[in-house]
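pasting for ref
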Amino acid sequence: MPGLFGEDRPVPVQSSGALSAPAPYDPRAPLAVRMRPQNLDEVVGQQHLLGPGAPLRRLVEGGSPSSMLLYGPPGTGKTTLATLVAGASGRRFAQLSALSAGVKEVRAVIEEARRSLRSTGEQTVLFIDEVHRFSKTQQDSLLGAVEDRTVILIAATTENPFFSVVSPLLSRSLVLQLQVLTDEDIAGLLRRAMTSERGLDGRLTLTDEAVGHLVALAVGDARRALTALETAADSVLDNRTLNDGEQPEVPVIDLMAVERAMDRAAVRYDRSGDQHYDVTSAFIKSIRGSDVDAALHYLARMLEAGEDPRFIARRLMIHASEDIGMADPTALPLAVSAAQVVQLVGLPECRIALAQATIHLATAPKSGAVIAAIDAAMGDVRAGKTGPVPPYLRDGHYPGAAKLGNAQGYIYPHHLADGVATQQYPPDDLVGRDYYEPTTKGNERVISERLAKLRRVVRGLREK
């Protein structure tokens, strides 16, 4: 059940023993806190890190200690795994948050770790949340203690550490990427919380429709899923108290209860069924048709239903070339940038970049000339229209190439005043074959005029 419990405030340093037996918990604590995994067997997901022989499993089972950077979206278990590693390995555990701790606090924890190591031989696991928020100076202050293993550093970040963490700290640590929890992981977590004595202890039941909506609301975030479940459960219990009518023996959390508690209607959208394809098709056709408002509606519909934002970003990148192309050459770089935001930032913030790309593409001039050009060229190749490469265009860098006539007589365009030479480039059978036919829309109007001149010069045709 990774993903719960990333406290933003520093907590006191504490000594942690093995976590084989459940630790006491506060029944008044939020459901997400009560359901914190108390051993590795309770962890859901991240099996690439916790399976037999995997890095975290080796560390927990007494393997050689190693500092590590846990990189992944919110709610995937970074804080939870760090706590379990410290507890199961019997080491002291200290936690700092980069949101509130500075160099002074880091040095104090390191000094306490040194005293503990000298006096008891007990090693300290130092967990730093949001480490990407540390300045270079703050990160550098960790290097000595990590180098000599005064502390075993476990740092968590939602941002790519290769961009946000200094190289010396990276080189001293394992970088382990946590994955977004699957729908099955979240559903299993919700059902466990319904029956666990640390959770709702069987006091309510949960319908399959409600599970599906809670999974969509969570978007792979375990903390968000449990918080939503608790809110819905409280709503059902409060409603039962207020209403005197006949009530079921065991209160039921149904779809309506979740919608009422979260103030978010369930979006009728099956990510593996017709709705997925229909909404995606409508999204792209709205962009192609330059209806920015309809495009934003379908984008919101996909996001609200829990569609993978990476899928949306891929569709935008394809559309930027397929339906806009050279009519607006900035469309593709913008779509690629939005995809990078999805990868580096994630939801919910990446929705803004996806919306920006959608608006840009929907309002851009449209042209299908690029896809028509490459499809026409590939059609000729498939039809066997290839032919030999003209000798003067062939590679002339290997011994004996000149004797074969390769690269002889080639006109180097940069040696000419206007940078364009009259010279045959395609095979004989394709001379004069035009693939790219720019439209007069947007930037392609300029390209169209220049292309006509280029073709006349290259092909040695007279000006008309």
